[in-house]
Design a protein that fits this description.
With 124 residues, the chain is mainly β. The chain has 1 helix and 11 strands; from the N terminus they run ββββββββββαβ. A hairpin with a 4-residue loop joins strand 8 and strand 9.
Length: 124
């Protein structure tokens, strides 16, 4: 079984998303973070960096995405990596609490409605 390793982040030049391999400290005298999309290295804002986790339906899910479950439309959740659980988890925005592991949501209908960088209004 192979797993696709991919990252996304917003470029510092034009604030657009770029997808590919992640490189930190590519050059000794330049500490910024880069993503290589197969053609070029793009300098990115490390605060927007998120790893590809899985595909649900036709949509790729990354760290920082905001999901809603079919039975909980009014309660959006943020995808994040929990170092204590060593798993991708969902954080309930409305109550500011841990909801569960992302793998628990697969038995439900899940939709991605945005991400924390492009849709900060969803965090309110």
């Amino acid at each position: 079984m192979s797993r696709e390793i991919e990252f996304r982040a917003k470029t510092t030049m034009d604030n657009k998303w770029v997808y590919g391999g992640y490189y930190s400290h590519l050059f000794i005298d330049q500490p910024p973070t880069f993503i290589h999309d197969g053609y070029r290295y793009a300098k990115v804002d490390p605060r927007t960096l998120g790893q590809y986790i899985c595909t649900i339906g036709e949509q790729k899910i990354y760290e920082g995405d905001i999901l809603v479950l079919s039975n909980e439309q009014a309660y959006p959740k943020i995808v994040y990596f929990d170092n204590d659980k060593l798993a991708y988890c969902l954080h309930e925005i409305r109550y500011g609490s841990y909801w569960g592991k992302l793998s628990n949501a697969f038995r439900l209908q899940v939709s991605c409605i945005g991400n924390i960088h492009d849709n900060p209004e969803l965090l309110e």
